[in-house]
Amino acid sequence: xxxxxxxxxxxxxxxxxxxxxxxxxxxxxxxxxxxxxxxxxxxxxxxxxxxxxxxxxxxxxxxxxxxxxxxxxxxxxxxxxxxxxxxxxxxxxxxxxxxxxxxxxxxxxxxxxxxxxxxxxxxxxxxxxxxxxxxxxxxxxxxxxxxxxxxxxxxxxxxxxxxxxxxxxxxxxxxxxxxxxxxxxxxxxxxxxxxxxxxxxxxxxxxxxxxxxxxxxxxxxxxxxxxxxxxxxxxxxxxxxxxxxxxxxxxxxxxxxxxxxxxxxxxxxxxxxxxxxxxxxxxxxxxxxxxxxxxxxxxxxxxxxxxxxxxxxxxxxxxxxxxxxxxxxxxxxxxxxxxxxxxxxxxxxxxxxxxxxxxxxxxxxxxxxxxxxxxxxxxxxxxxxxxxxxxxxxxxxxxxxxxxxxxxxxxxxxxxxxxxxxxxxxxxxxxxxxxxxxx
Length: 439
Known about the structure:
Elements: E1 4-7, H1 16-21, H2 28-39, E2 44-47, H3 54-64, E3 68-72, H4 78-81, H5 85-100, E4 104-108, H6 110-114, H7 116-122, E5 126-128, H8 133-144, E6 155-158, E7 166-168, H9 191-202, E8 206-209, E9 212-214, E10 231-233, H10 236-249, E11 254-257, H11 266-279, E12 285-289, H12 296-305, E13 307-315, H13 319-325, H14 333-343, E14 347-354, H15 361-374, E15 378-383, H16 391-396, H17 422-438
């Protein structure tokens, strides 16, 4: 009998865009949670929904007969941060099924933090709000001791007498030293289906890691339900050691660092490159960052460490829109960052965001012109998406209807009354990709 069955609810079969892209990654946050629980003596199993069907979860319940089921979403992945409707609905069905199997059900993740009530209504006994690593360990210790976790910081539960029907313990502050969590439980991952999917579509096998937790910047559309504006860094040695272990255990050809912001300090990047070289753990990798962080020292450090591609949060070619977003960058910084990365042999790709409130045709044209002028190696195009807890969400809250989340990641639906329609932005999304490819 398993003590704890850890699971997540992002089924690749439920998201057409992700099936088309076929860049699946294991649930990193879930693996960190598994490692923490095993370090405290729990017998842990993993249900990885990525390539599974919901019926497979029922089979996992029958096979493992867990006392506790923990629906622990990967808060490092942007898909979990989007709180997509298909993932919420799947999680709620899984919670009900686990309860019917006699398990105590806990749930954690961005959507759980923003909206615990739907999960509690579906059968979750205890929601873990914010960074849940410590909360999960303490909640299970309370349950194993015959009590309940109401005194554990970060826990929420159903209470008809509380506001909104949800009572909460005091909030938990994020951990300042993420090295205390150790390395993820990579041995629980069945790597073969990931390798097959990546190799068939892209000719190489990629896995995911993180070096940090959180983001210190103030972009007013960016939701931070897990870490707020806190930013904590793992030690370069701990990250390099995990890379070495991954090479030995699963032999990936490439790494994606899922950090919101990788390498905030150029000195950290330099130390990281040195630690990687000492262990012979060098692998080509992709990161996410900002144009104002692409200094000569930072780019040189990234090149030494093996960085292959940087996705830059460019968002718009209009300074007016960037200022409205509180992005904190200048349009003129974009070409310089792009040139600097190209000079170091590193691909530079842009995240672009359309449809921010007040966007005009001139702003759209400025974004198109910036892409044409700088010719990034790739672009990721989305429309402004209001997430709870952001200033942007508060700006457009009165315009949101009953549907306040995308169903899947290719939805590109305008959730508020923007300058143009959903159909317009979907066409513009396609145009930007075609125009860049042609040029």
